Amino acid sequence: MTVLLALALGYTGLTCLALGMKRHHQELLGRKPTEARLRLFKAAGWLLILATTAACLMLWPLGLALSMVPILVTLVGLPLIFLLPYRPALARHLAWALPLVAGGLAVGGLG
Amino acid sequence: MNGSLRQSMAWLHTWSGLLLGWLLVAVFVTGTSAYYREEISLWMEPELHQSVRSDDTVDLAWQTLGRIAADARSWDISLPDARNPAVQLRWQPAGEEQPRQGGGRNRGEQVWMDAGSGEVLTPRETRGGHFLYRFHFELYGVPRLWARWLICIATMFMLVAIISGVITHKKLFKDFFTFRPGKGQRSWLDAHNASAVLALPFHFMITYSGLLLFMVMLMPWGIDAAYDGDRRAFFDEAFPRSTETPGPAGGPADMVAIGPLAAATAARFERPVSRIEVQHPNRENARIRISVEQDVTISGRRRGGSPTQVFQGSSGGLLETIEPREAPAPLMGKVYNVMTNLHLVRFADPVVRLLFFFSGLAGSAMVATGMLLWVSKRTQQLRRQQPGAALKLVNGLNMASITGLLAAIGAYFAANRLLPPALAERSSWEIRVFFLVWLASLVHGLLRPHRRGWIEQLAVITVLWLALPFVDMATTNSHLFSAAAWRLGALAGFDLICLLLGALWGYTLWRVAKPKQDKRKPARAREPALAEGNA
């Protein structure tokens, strides 16, 4: 488990949470979402934040891990906020590409 | 009722934020730099950079102390670690111990030694990263207690600003992915919200734990009541330390060689030796304490408990083995340790340190955007009128506290390289350069028109920070293209962070200097709920 993977999971989680909001959903995917889809994205987002928490718990001892979760989420959230208006397509693609790359690096033992 | 509560909170947020914002930016920026204070200090002492630890380092330190401090009362050798390549040798000279000015133990004499050659090194005189670190909670040139109180009051207002801010921006959590670029005040508001809300846990943690570090100064009454005003008794009970008072020195005697003892301790704990302390060196009753590095845990205490072996100096016989352990602490003690360790980032993990550093930058940006928002809102209300003296004053102070401080820090680093090494009071001159540049930026900010002033100051900090690695290249042998910089990591990292930050200031300059397209488009009142009561 690497820090990069934890960061990537946090980024995807936050992007899912943004997709769970009507306005951002429309900005990112260009169509009106149904209530069910919004709920689905919200659930996925929170699950990924949970996964980030799990990753932190594997990386650090309890006290530090719980403190690091909000810090990791902050650090990936800030770029996301600025990507959304300027490069929405990039923001969307990063959401699936980052965990893949970080996961690949972790499996390859490089990250 | 709700409306008036939010209005009063908005008022509180605006004015507490503005008045203490100037101080808080400085606290945040210098505090963020303090995560790397050891690395900054190392960068600022290039004379130490060529030192490399070898198998002989311990013996060399032993011989050097035997030569320069043979009759000392005690020796203390700090061996190189990941953050420092040179050996620090300290000793208490013979004779009665002189108490340090202002209380506390006298730290005695100290020199640096090259870990590879045993040569005594004399680094240029500098306060290094400790100046910035101290500045973030004690300022400079102000009586220490006053400065600490001032910072603590500002920190309490920061907590007030955080809480009142959350109440003010009711839609904060709904809108926190929102950034609307190119819309003047609205964009500043979004940036302020985004950096504030996302990083809220970090801001809360760093502010609260900062106050906790000063709890005894801020709220002494509980302790005074429980301990009858005897604070020393409280400290002894809450933060016990081993007090080992050595007896009088015995007659002269030779000591055994240190090499095999150090090797034995390193093998016993399977870690390199980090510290060697000797009581009564070269005496019959010499005692040698050899310690290895200790894992710093987040709930643990700073000192004590590192794995140690104690030897008799004259025979080399093993007296005691102290196993690694975590000092037992009551639950509240553990909570205090976790909070304060989070503030100080004592647990040495480079990745965590970097993540905290970036969080600190985000915190600085949050305070700075709030202050810019104040000016932006009032500039838009002017509608082509000339700005009044108050607005000019606030803007000038904003400039000094943001770009001015960055110019001062950059100049402090540059002065370290460019001032002649033998200059008298060299470390004071570095600090004078820091404050002179800061003052100059304030004067400049007050005199120049609004936008021109920002552009000029941004240009200065861009050039200054981008130039730092090149100044380093011209004046040292441990620059970005040298083996030493990459062997130590911290040195290469310092130059790379300078380049990165310089590029960031350059990008900001480019954005600010670019002519605006929708200059006179009124950006107000489209979403009144969000704009209401802000700034």
TrEMBL record, chain A:
This is DUF3325 domain-containing protein. The chain crosses the membrane at residues 6-22, 43-62, 68-86, 93-110. InterPro entries: DUF3325 (IPR021762). Coiled coil: none annotated. Keywords: Membrane, Transmembrane, Transmembrane helix. Pfam families: DUF3325. It comes from Alcanivorax dieselolei (strain DSM 16502 / CGMCC 1.3690 / MCCC 1A00001 / B-5).
UniProtKB/TrEMBL annotation, chain B:
It comes from the Bacteria. Keywords: Membrane, Transmembrane, Transmembrane helix. The chain crosses the membrane at residues 146-167, 196-223, 354-375, 396-415, 427-447, 454-471, 491-510. Pfam families: PepSY_TM. This is Membrane protein, putative. It comes from Alcanivorax dieselolei (strain DSM 16502 / CGMCC 1.3690 / MCCC 1A00001 / B-5) (Alloalcanivorax dieselolei).
